[in-house]
Design a protein that fits this description.
There is one protein chain. This protein is of the alpha/beta class and 250 residues long. It has seven helices and 14 strands. The strands form two sheets. Strands 6-5-4-3-2-1-14 form a seven-stranded mixed beta sheet. The protein has a seven-stranded mixed beta sheet with strand order 7-8-9-10-11-12-13. The protein is globular, with a radius of gyration of 17 Å. The two termini are 12 Å apart.
Length: 250
């Protein structure tokens, strides 16, 4: 998208943690001006998703993490190690909630002992996002809004402002009023709808979201992280449902 204004979002993974419907885990690929590329969440299947879409993982300059569950950040050790073995030169920034640095080190040591201590060929910067604080990461401004989802560390909805556009991702959460603040007036709100009507703690159901959408006022809403019940009712949804491979111009 070099030289163009606006953003393009490609949904590389729209599924839940368990691959319901054969969908890949959460991974949103955001392209902006000057060929900059960002991942919002990096579930365990994300490296496969990138390569399956013909995207060079080394082109990703930044990974933004909503929370530290495996289906949202578990692909990060593989992305880092792929960069090492592929002789990546471009720097990588990883930004997530407090605890990201420690959790990434632990995950790398569990999966590939010794890998966190190897000198990398490329610069890796870890940024821990404070709740409600605007953080500049290159041309992006990122704000993490605390949400209701237990993950052993703070969980956020992420508001990303870039190239005159605003993209918001809910992360995983039950309904909380911070979603209204995070997504108000956004050009695109990508929101969890794990179930259709059934209420589950720490996850959002479509029925609750449908009652609240007017309060948010986002210009476009796309539902993701779809579980079995939601997939069975997706044609009844109040907003479009994501599919792996969906491309959205923003």
């Amino acid at each position: 998208m070099s030289g163009e204004s606006g953003l393009r979002l490609r949904v590389l993974g729209s599924g839940d943690a368990f691959g319901t419907g054969g969908r890949l885990q959460t991974c949103l690929y955001l392209e902006g001006p000057e060929d900059r590329r960002v991942l919002i969440d990096c579930g365990a299947t994300s490296l496969v998703a990138l390569k399956g879409a013909g995207i060079d993982p080394a082109s990703v300059g930044c990974v933004l993490l909503s929370h530290l569950h495996g289906d949202h950040f578990g692909g990060l050790p593989f992305l880092v190690l792929d960069g090492q073995f592929a002789r990546r030169a471009a720097p990588l920034t990883v930004a997530g909630p407090p605890g990201t640095r420690e959790r990434l080190t632990t995950a790398m040591e569990v999966l590939f002992p010794g890998s966190s201590r190897v000198a990398r060929r490329f610069q890796t910067d870890l940024v821990e996002l404070g709740a409600g604080t605007a953080t500049a990461i290159g041309p992006l401004t990122v704000i993490g809004f605390p949400v209701q989802h237990e993950s052993g560390a703070p969980s956020y909805a992420l508001r990303v402002e870039w190239a005159g556009r605003t993209v918001v991702y809910s992360g995983d959460t039950e309904w909380c009023e911070s979603l209204v603040d995070a997504a108000r007036g956004a050009d695109l709100f990508v929101c969890e709808a794990y179930t259709f009507e059934r209420r589950i703690r720490y996850h959002l159901d479509h029925a609750t979201l449908a009652r609240r959408l007017d309060a948010i006022g986002a210009r476009r809403v796309i539902l993701t992280h779809l579980g079995p019940e939601m997939l069975a009712h997706r044609h009844e949804a109040v907003a479009e449902c994501a599919e792996d491979g969906l491309v959205v111009e923003i």
